[in-house]
């Protein structure tokens, strides 16, 4: 200790002496009084430390004064003195005699231009700019590096120059390091914590907090520092929900709405203090983590003042930890006290810091010690000085290195940087005492900057406890490779303050690519980020430019948002969706099915973003948990077609009266069938069995409702006189009808136009309104009295009263939604925004109200609200099931929620409550609808009033033949349900009446695909895929081959080469040909007929094929089981009955698809095209073939049992091979069909059909065709030695004793036994002349006698052998009437191959 104190005293004295003798000390003497110019200019004179035998030099610019060049910056004075103090320690050490280091410090007056000027002056002083030709052999001190100014602005000015130079630059403050990093200055050395170091500490802290989601608050300058912070966090898989500037007008609201419970601020100390002291900020229950942009630390006083006493906010300050340097403090005060009168710099310091004057300044050492505050960069400049000193020691110890750095060069810079990377300097006794024992090392940071080890960053948590601030150190991060991290245990409150990035969030790494969408078509109610969304699709605009709102039903989107907003409040006792927040997104489809499909496909497959209320809202695939659709017509059908494809597991809630078996679209609206049944029951009750229909044919909803009515009318005793299209050309319609009752399926406007025409008729006609025609009076107010007694059949009114009241009181100020503002602007002709003022020319007042009476009954709005409520109830049930704690969304809900919501919606009941109204005056004489009846499926029709016609007389409308005719006589078998097209003369006007009247078949549906088969083949979408041409060619070739085989068999049968019952083989060939033909239907585009053919023929073809194979396998098994007895005989018709049963079951199952009303719809697979597609889903198609799968298993089982039977040319072997291969193909195609995209499913089925059909054709008919083409039957003389041949050649021989005749052993149906030994399907008949002359009788013992031996028998030989036999033994030839007969020579003893039975 004594030695250490002696060393300190010696060094201090030496440094004081050095200061006193330095002739170049900045402003060494005070200039003469009054010489202001010289005094101001003298501040730019550099401060130099030039030891004897100085070999190396460092220097740079320092902001000693403020920009007025008079106000001193005391902390900078400390920094320069600290460098001098460190250099004195180094230079006074005898071991560093060859590595003495000097300093050049120029004042910049805190001005950016002067920082560059002073730096250049320093570089000139060391010959940096000297040309190579002017350099001397004995240069002065060698340049080791340039010191960057500590302020950000000056460093940016200098950094611009350094980007094109190769000078090592050292930064000892966080601000200067940030500037150099931002400009990407190479060869930067940092001895102060960089932003990257603070972020590394933050990453360790987030790991301790077990969190990975933050919200960033910056100063709004869009600084690259913030970008680097976000990028570094993202690399560590810590996500940023959003970045909010501190000047945001709703900063507190934005932070409160954020998903993150942790806020990370990238601000300086002043900005931080001003932000967290705001009441709206400190009242939040969040965790605020501060990253200082300028490396500032909160002192004890600031730590106690940063939080309000009522603050709920908790703050964690990441700040550098400074090393206390008492030895430097003593030295610095001693220098001041002893030399302040001699040097202008020190004089200015004491005057400014200690309030001294030129005439009176008494400095007390104790007072100076108490007022001393160590600069936050003092430790950093000392480390920087020793870093260059260590480099000087390494270079000075090597003559080669000294030569390399004799002049500034890129090679010298590389040497310096590499030396720093390998430096491992240990502070010793001759170095500053506070650093003794520490090691100085450098490593590359994340931005390639060389960082000094040993820099410490602390995480101090500040929170209120009983109204008083408490400070706790959570973490200590010390730089190094690797860094040293010391953590403290967390409080229980901190453990609860977790911030986890939920799945399907745009900021959680889910959206590397974003698609920007039109913000004028996407509207998020209460715009902010939500974890999940419910999307509503509406036809808000129409027309080619998507600007018209003429047909907009504003009640539909209002019902959607009102239901979402009030759902929890409407059922408070149920605690629905507790802690679960979701957004309601409205999408304008512009009355286009394609736009609607694109919106849904985009939501399911892509991340898309739109701007609203100054926020970028991003939607991630999978975050949309459901869709609500209020689209019309084709748009709705196209949307339902997409959901029926099974490409999404989200549910669709609609207000469609067509309840189909799509299983993914749900509606609360009573089905068209229920409404039609209620109407028919009422018509029957009123004896109105003969009616006229007025139809808006161009309105899909009216047309669909009419079709439901038309299908049921005849069975319920109601006859349609005529169907009048009132959708166009109303002036040409006939006045009056032939019936007393007219049922109107039309829009309200078309119904009003029709009634205005019907008013001119003198006939007393009752009009029954269906669908939207209920609101006809809105468009024909002047004729309301003329149509009292009008009946309307409508779904029960379920609209909430509070919704109607809300609509009546809503103004643009109370509903600031852009879609609603657009509607108000269109209706009132005024502008609600400056953008719209150019269009309308005047501004709205903001108090404009809706005229709710003009919106009519709003039936769809009520049922849309009911459907959305059902969806939310289902979501609440699934949420409570998967997330029992109900503390927000859980991972299970994200992963399984959509599917379980869909399954839950399938269990909901279907509404069927229908009300019947009569349009009549009330007690005050005002006309309105009054209920007179109610109908439900369970209770039927219940009348609660009596219908009274306006005339008072009862109205009847009955059909009295032959004066009337029903048009519901369509025959399903004659007119299948695929489509119908009216011929031209039916579509035109009737020449006799000039009316536009046409009759609608009862079982028809409108075709939307092609007008002819030729158009289907030549202009179909199938031509867009080149592989379809290859499949067509291959299928055609295989069909030709299969038909050729069939013709060959038929020809051989006709020529009696093949005899016997070949019906099973021919049936199998027909089934194979049917499989090939079925492949054509999967190649061409889907229409209703094609879709039915696909599902019916696919199963039918396989049923025939595998049915024949099962029958054959059973046939062969029975033959083997019956053995050698002749008393048992199984008729061939038994196997035909088995085949008929198998195929009949398949036909019965196929009737379900034949009777399906609609098998095709308009669908979109991608967002680029729209075309017809089958409504049959992929799972339904596979299940429709489940019976075929059973047949395959049965065939495989039987053929496996029969694998050792060698009858009929070992046919069981080929049956087993074919069945096994088909089984493997089925497993493969079913698996692939369920997994691949929709575009390639038909191709998979085509390939499967071709492969299976070809396998069956090749394995089961290939060997037989080979025999037919290569062999021919011949009759030869029977030889005794031929009964026991010793080998079989190609075919298996007969058994030694005859077996019982069965369909397996003989293809003939004749029960008599013969001596023929052939058992092949293609064996010759025994009815030849020779064989009939010598029949073979079977003895009771089963053996043959000589007398019973035949003279001739039939054998199969290759055609070449037959010709040789004929030429060689021509004289022994015996002829039969139908085939060649060859007498075998007696000398031939070899075995003759026979065709075994």
Automatic annotation (TrEMBL):
Residues 1289-1397 are annotated as: Disordered. Residues 1355-1364 have a biased composition (Basic residues). CDD domains: 7tm_classC_mGluR-like (cd13953). One of its GO terms (cellular component) is membrane. One of its GO terms (molecular function) is G protein-coupled receptor activity. Residues 1337-1346, 1384-1397 have a biased composition (Polar residues). Residues 1026-1269 form the G-protein coupled receptors family 3 profile domain. This is G-protein coupled receptors family 3 profile domain-containing protein.
């Amino acid at each position: 200790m004594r030695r250490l104190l002696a060393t300190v005293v010696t060094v201090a004295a030496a440094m004081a002496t050095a200061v006193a003798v330095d002739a170049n000390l900045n402003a060494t003497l005070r200039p003469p009084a009054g010489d202001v110019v010289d005094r101001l200019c003298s501040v730019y004179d550099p401060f130099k430390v030039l030891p004897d035998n100085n070999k190396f030099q460092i220097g740079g610019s320092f902001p000693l004064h403020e920009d007025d060049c008079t106000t001193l910056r005391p902390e900078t004075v400390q920094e320069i003195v600290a460098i001098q103090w460190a250099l004195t320690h180094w230079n006074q050490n005898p071991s560093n005699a060859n590595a003495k280091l000097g300093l050049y410090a120029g004042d910049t007056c805190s001005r950016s231009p002067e920082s560059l000027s002073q730096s250049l002056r320093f570089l000139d002083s060391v010959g940096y700019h000297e040309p190579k030709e002017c350099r001397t052999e004995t240069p002065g001190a060698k340049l080791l590096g340039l010191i960057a100014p500590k302020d950000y602005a000056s460093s940016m000015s200098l950094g611009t120059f350094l980007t094109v130079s190769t000078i090592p630059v050292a930064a000892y403050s966080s601000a200067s390091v940030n500037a150099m990093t931002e400009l990407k200055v190479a060869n930067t050395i940092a001895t102060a914590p960089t932003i990257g170091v603070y972020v590394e500490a933050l990453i360790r802290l987030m790991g301790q907090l077990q969190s990975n989601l933050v919200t960033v608050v910056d100063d709004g300058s869009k600084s690259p520092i913030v970008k680097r912070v976000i990028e570094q966090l993202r690399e560590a898989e810590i996500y940023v929900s959003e970045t909010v500037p501190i000047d945001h007008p709703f900063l507190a609201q934005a932070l409160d709405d954020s998903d993150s419970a942790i806020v990370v601020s990238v601000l300086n100390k002043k900005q931080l203090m001003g932000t967290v002291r705001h009441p709206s900020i400190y009242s939040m229950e969040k965790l605020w983590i501060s990253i200082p942009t300028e490396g500032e630390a909160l002192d004890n006083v600031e730590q106690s003042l940063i939080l309000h006493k009522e603050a709920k906010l908790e703050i964690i300050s990441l700040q550098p930890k400074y090393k206390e340097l008492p030895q430097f403090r003593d030295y610095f005060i001693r220098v001041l006290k002893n030399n302040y009168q001699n040097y202008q710099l020190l004089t200015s310091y004491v005057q400014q810091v200690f309030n001294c004057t030129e005439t009176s300044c008494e400095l007390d050492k104790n007072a100076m010690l108490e007022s001393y505050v160590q600069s936050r960069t003092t430790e950093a400049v000392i480390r920087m000085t020793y870093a260059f000193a260590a480099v000087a020691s390494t270079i000075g110890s090597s003559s080669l290195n000294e030569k390399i750095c004799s002049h500034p060069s890129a090679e010298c810079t590389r040497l310096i940087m590499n030396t720093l990377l390998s430096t491992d300097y240990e502070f010793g006794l001759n170095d500053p005492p506070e650093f003794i024992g520490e090691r100085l090392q450098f490593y590359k940071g994340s931005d390639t900057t060389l960082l000094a080890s040993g820099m410490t960053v602390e995480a101090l948590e500040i929170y209120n406890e009983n109204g008083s601030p408490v400070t706790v150190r959570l973490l200590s991060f010390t730089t190094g490779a690797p860094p040293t991290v010391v953590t403290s245990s967390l409080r229980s409150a901190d453990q609860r303050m977790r911030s986890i990035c939920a799945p399907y969030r745009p900021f959680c790494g889910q959206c590397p690519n974003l698609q920007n969408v039109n913000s004028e078509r996407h509207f998020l109610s209460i715009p902010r980020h939500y974890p999940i969304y419910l999307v509503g699709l509406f036809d808000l605009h129409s027309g080619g430019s998507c600007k018209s709102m003429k047909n907009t039903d504003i009640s539909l989107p209002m019902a959607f948002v009102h239901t979402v907003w009030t759902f929890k409040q409407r059922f408070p006792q149920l605690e629905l969706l507790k802690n679960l927040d979701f957004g309601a997104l409205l999408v304008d489809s512009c009355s286009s099915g394609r736009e609607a499909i694109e919106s849904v496909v985009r939501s399911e497959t892509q991340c898309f973003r739109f701007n609203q209320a100054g926020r970028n809202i991003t939607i991630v695939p999978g975050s949309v948990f459901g869709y609500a659709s209020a689209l019309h017509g084709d748009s709705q059908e196209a949307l339902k077609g997409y959901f029926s494809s099974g490409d999404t597991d989200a549910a669709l809630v609609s207000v469609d009266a067509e309840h189909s078996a799509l299983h993914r679209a749900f509606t609360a609206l009573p089905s068209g069938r229920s409404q039609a049944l209620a109407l028919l029951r009422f018509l029957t009750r009123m004896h109105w069995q003969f009616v006229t229909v007025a139809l808006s044919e161009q309105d899909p909803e009216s047309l669909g409702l009419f079709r439901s009515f038309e299908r049921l009318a005849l069975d319920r005793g109601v006859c349609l006189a005529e169907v009048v299209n009132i959708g166009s050309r109303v002036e040409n319609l006939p006045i009056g009808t032939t019936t007393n009752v007219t049922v109107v399926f039309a829009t309200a406007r078309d119904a009003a136009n029709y009634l205005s025409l019907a008013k001119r008729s003198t006939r007393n006609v009752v009009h029954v309104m269906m669908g939207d025609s209920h609101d006809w009076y809105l468009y024909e107010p002047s004729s309301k009295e003329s149509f009292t007694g009008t009946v309307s059949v409508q779904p029960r009114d379920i609209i909430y009263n509070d919704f109607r009241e809300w609509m009546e009181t809503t103004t643009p100020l109370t509903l600031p939604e852009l879609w609603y503002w657009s509607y108000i602007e269109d209706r009132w002709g005024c502008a609600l925004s400056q953008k719209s003022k150019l269009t309308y020319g005047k501004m709205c007042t903001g108090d404009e109200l809706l005229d709710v009476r003009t919106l009519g009954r709003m039936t769809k709005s009520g049922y849309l609200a009911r459907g959305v409520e059902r969806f939310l109830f289902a979501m609440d049930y699934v949420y409570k099931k998967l997330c029992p704690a109900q503390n927000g969304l859980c991972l299970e809900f994200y992963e399984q929620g959509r599917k379980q919501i869909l399954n839950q919606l399938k269990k909901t009941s279907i509404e069927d409550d229908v009300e019947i109204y009569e349009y009549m005056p009330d007690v005050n004489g005002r006309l309105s609808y009054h209920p007179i009846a109610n109908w439900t499926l369970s209770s039927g029709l219940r009348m609660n009033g009596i219908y009274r016609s306006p005339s008072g007389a009862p109205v009847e409308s009955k059909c009295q033949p032959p004066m009337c005719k029903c048009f519901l006589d369509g025959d399903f078998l004659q007119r299948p349900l695929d489509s119908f097209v009216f011929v031209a003369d039916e579509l035109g006007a009737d020449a006799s009446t000039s009316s536009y009247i046409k009759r609608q078949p009862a079982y028809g549906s409108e075709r939307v695909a092609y007008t002819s088969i030729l158009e289907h083949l030549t202009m179909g979408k199938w031509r867009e895929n080149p592989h379809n041409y290859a499949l067509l060619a291959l299928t055609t070739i295989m069909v030709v081959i299969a038909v050729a085989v069939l013709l060959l068999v038929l020809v051989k049968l006709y020529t009696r080469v093949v005899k016997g019952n070949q019906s099973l083989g021919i049936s199998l060939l027909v089934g194979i040909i049917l499989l090939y033909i079925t492949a054509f239907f999967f190649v061409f585009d889907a229409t209703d007929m094609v879709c039915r053919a696909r599902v019916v023929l696919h199963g039918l073809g396989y049923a025939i094929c595998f049915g024949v194979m099962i029958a054959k396998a059973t046939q062969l098994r029975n033959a083997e089981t019956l053995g050698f007895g002749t008393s048992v005989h199984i008729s061939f018709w038994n196997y035909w009955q088995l085949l008929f049963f198998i195929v009949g079951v398949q036909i019965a199952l196929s009737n379900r698809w034949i009777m399906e009303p609609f098998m095709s719809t308009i669908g979109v697979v991608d967002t680029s095209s729209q075309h017809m597609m089958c409504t049959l889903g992929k799972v339904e198609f596979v299940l429709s073939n489940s019976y075929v799968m059973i047949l395959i298993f049965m065939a495989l089982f039987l053929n496996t049992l029969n694998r050792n039977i060698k009858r009929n040319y070992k046919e069981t072997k080929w049956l087993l091979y074919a069945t096994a291969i088909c089984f493997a193909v089925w497993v493969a195609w079913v698996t692939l069909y369920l997994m691949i995209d929709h575009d390639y499913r038909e191709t998979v089925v085509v390939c499967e059909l071709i492969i299976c059909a070809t396998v069956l054709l090749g394995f089961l008919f290939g060997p037989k065709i080979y025999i037919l083409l290569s062999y021919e039957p011949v009759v030869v003389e029977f030889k005794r030695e031929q009964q026991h041949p010793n080998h079989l050649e190609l075919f298996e021989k007969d058994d030694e004793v005859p077996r019982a005749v069965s369909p397996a052993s003989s293809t003939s149906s004749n029960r008599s036994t013969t001596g023929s030994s052939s058992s092949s399907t293609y064996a010759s008949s025994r009815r030849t002349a020779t064989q009939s002359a010598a029949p073979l009788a079977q003895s009771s013992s089963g053996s043959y006698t000589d007398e019973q031996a035949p003279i001739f028998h039939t054998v199969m030989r290759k055609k070449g052998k037959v010709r040789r036999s004929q030429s060689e033994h021509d004289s022994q030839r015996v002829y039969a009437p139908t085939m060649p007969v060859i007498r075998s020579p007696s000398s031939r003893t070899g075995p003759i191959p026979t065709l075994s039975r």
